[in-house]
Automatic annotation (TrEMBL):
It comes from Rudaeicoccus suwonensis. Residues 155-167 have a biased composition (Polar residues). SUPFAM superfamilies: Prokaryotic lipoproteins and lipoprotein localization factors. This is Outer membrane lipoprotein-sorting protein. Residues 146-167, 309-333 are annotated as: Disordered. InterPro entries: LolA/LolB/LppX, Sporulation_related.
Amino acid sequence: MSLFDRRPALRWVAPGAALAVVVVGTQIATRLPADAAVTLPHITAAQLLTQVESAKPQALQGTVSVSMNLGLPSLPTSMTGGSDSAQPLSWLSGTHTAKVWYDGAAGSRVALLGDGSETDIYAISTGVWVWNSADRSVEHIAPPVVTGNHRQHPLKSNSTGTTADSQALTTPEGVASWALQQLDATTAVTTSSNVSVAGRSAYQLVLTPKTSGTKIGSVRVAFDAATKVPLRAEVYAAGASSPAVSVGFSSVSFTKPAAGNFDFTPPPGAKVTVQQMPAKPSANSLSSLGLTAPTVTGTGWASVATGTLPMTNPNVTEGDSGQGSPQRTSNSATSMTQLLKLLPTVSGSWGTGHLLSTSLFTAVLANDGRYAIGAVPAQTLYTALAKH
């Protein structure tokens, strides 16, 4: 059982399915303005972790500030989708805002706000719904069909973490959950000066990798002093004095959201795509999508995930979705092809491909579809690919 499973309070506001790689979900923002230190009763790191583990989920609503500063090259609007908040590449740079609502079994909702557009992600009793106002599209992931009396609520995580990670890009809980999974012998855990986040006093936990084989220098998580809910998470690159990532509440209220915040019915004329969530994801279900389950090598902060992606046709052009393929899928494939062309070509005994290197993580996509990703230097990925 992982630490994430033992600490359910750390993931209560993160329902659905996200960017596929947890490491990417941890690197989203530049630092929010620093708050003045506050005076709180002294507790040790161990005491804080114990209190976080025993904390009960809290109904809340608030605004989260998200921005990105990973040292990536500027991406053209045609690739990022401009103000379309549903396009993942649009969140790789700039500053973004999300609204969040949570109320236990009633549901969870995150609204990603764009310039003139909005993408809402609902995790409610009828499944996961994703509404994109830019193109009036709806994606519905229906609850799994199960036999017997047992039915898994869509807010609950399955063994793969699929439903737990969808909003890691937009909530402090998503970053905090990933970081706290790293608590083992390779991590030094301390506390630093208490802070004020969104007007609330908070204890700050600092996780520092003991290994030099990672690009991450430290992770700081601020927990609300009263509720122990994560209010802000910051990720620092090794040797950096300011964070490369910060996801935090700019305003938060621990009051029960109105029930209407969790109601969703596709608007008239919306394009609806329906998928059935498998009762238990398996290697066969991944294979049907052209995917293979990733293999993880190494430990802790220096671990590497390797796997194989389905290869897309580089000749597919935007506006030509192909028979039976949604327009958005074609556009996404085109954007990824364009992105790869901007990345340097690398080669070695493992093959030839393209390298994406940021301040916090590195990824390699080989021409044959194999990939490797981790918060490690490129050479570590090359070594892993040579064995995959």
